[in-house]
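Task: sequence design from structure.
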């Protein structure tokens, strides 16, 4: 009897999910796995997709949280792993995550191995590397995000799965992770359980993503105010970058009149970018010269999204 379910939520072109399913077909513990494709909608997959899955389920289109819930509930496996339809898990991915759950953890988190070749994709991967370093040293791991994650089935049942009030692929996994921690569960960080991915390929797409992240994070923090101080994933220096980004932008416009203020603002911003510089030096030295521009772009997007989140009346 299979004891590991791998749930892949999906909506889009059928051929786009084939690489993910093919990667799952060569997992080192494939004989233990039930691959569950959970379609966010009522479409029936073509035969080529069905051949690479053990179980296909679908339902009313209601977002990835709903699709993930439908997927894990359709199986009876005690170990439930999640990845996304645009990710390529390494052959040992499922084995590494399942092993940690079998050791007694209630959830596990893996990593992105790569993000693409454009400059913004490489910078985004540096951002992830900084976060992974933080998590590897943290006494408590607060996040199992579903591009590479797993949960014990009994805890998914205990927590009633993902909160389906999240209509987008945005913070539904953060919400579940924080509820799990508050209920007494523990999350393991598995740094070698990796998936390949293609990050946002343009600066505009990255800004839009971070705007959305900032908006939904503020909306979720209303529910978990204790996570304002630390969530075990967001570097404290990122919060300082957001704080210092506003005076820096103002000072750039005022530079001809107040050059000292501009210089001081720029220096303060650069100082809080030091951990990001270190991550870039360790993982992708080519990106080092543009780290300040990237950090400011990210900070402005997050601040803008956070303002939108503060004004939103939506309850999650």
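Answer:
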């Amino acid at each position: 009897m299979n004891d590991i379910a791998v749930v892949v939520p999906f909506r889009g072109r059928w051929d786009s999910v084939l690489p993910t399913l093919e990667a799952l077909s060569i997992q080192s513990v494939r004989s233990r796995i039930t691959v569950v494709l959970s379609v966010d909608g009522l479409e029936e997959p073509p035969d080529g997709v069905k051949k690479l899955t053990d179980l296909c389920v679908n339902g009313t289109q209601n977002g990835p949280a709903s699709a993930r819930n439908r997927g894990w509930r359709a199986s009876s496996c005690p170990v439930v792993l999640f990845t996304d339809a645009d990710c390529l898990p390494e052959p040992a991915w499922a084995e590494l995550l399942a092993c940690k759950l079998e050791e007694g953890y209630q959830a596990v988190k893996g990593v992105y191995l790569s993000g693409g070749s454009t400059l913004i994709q490489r910078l985004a991967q540096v951002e992830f590397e900084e976060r992974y370093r933080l998590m590897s040293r943290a006494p408590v791991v607060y996040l199992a995000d579903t591009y590479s994650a797993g949960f014990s089935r009994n805890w998914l049942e205990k927590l009633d799965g993902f909160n389906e009030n999240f209509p987008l692929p945005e913070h539904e996994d953060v919400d579940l992770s924080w509820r799990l921690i508050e209920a007494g569960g523990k999350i393991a960080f598995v740094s070698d359980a990796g998936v390949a991915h293609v990050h946002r390929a343009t600066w505009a797409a990255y800004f839009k993503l971070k705007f959305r992240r900032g908006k939904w994070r503020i909306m979720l923090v209303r529910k978990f105010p204790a996570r304002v101080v630390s969530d075990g994933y967001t570097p404290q220096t990122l919060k300082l970058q957001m704080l210092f980004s506003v005076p820096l932008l103002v000072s750039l416009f005022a530079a001809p009149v107040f050059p000292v203020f501009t210089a001081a603002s720029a220096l303060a911003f650069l100082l809080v970018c030091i951990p990001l510089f270190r991550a870039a030096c360790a993982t992708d030295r080519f990106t080092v010269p543009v780290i300040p521009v990237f950090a400011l772009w990210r900070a402005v997007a997050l601040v803008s999204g956070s303002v939108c989140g503060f004004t939103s009346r939506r309850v999650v």
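The chain is about 50% helix and 15% strand.
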